[in-house]
Design goal:
The chain is mainly α and about 70 residues long. The protein contains two helices and two strands. The two termini are about 10 Å apart.
């Protein structure tokens, strides 16, 4: 399942995003951070990785097989 969170950003809402992630039951198989300043996105990815999440910040044009190994 793909989820989009409108109205939140890694820069301004880091604490709110981490509270949301911490409260989740289970973890997503993969989380793509596709919006925000590079430094803030990396900080959010590192924080999510610290919760055991598998995160990536794809580069423009990068391709991922969403259903590989499913």
């Amino acid at each position: 399942q793909i989820e989009t969170l409108d109205g939140l950003s890694a820069h301004a809402d880091h604490d709110e995003l981490m509270a949301w992630a911490t409260a989740m039951e289970g973890k997503p198989k993969m989380t793509f951070l596709v919006h925000g300043e590079a430094e803030r996105s990396r900080a959010l990815a590192n924080a999510l990785d610290g919760l055991g999440w598998n995160t990536t910040i794809p580069q423009y044009g990068e391709v991922h097989g969403l259903f590989d190994h499913v």
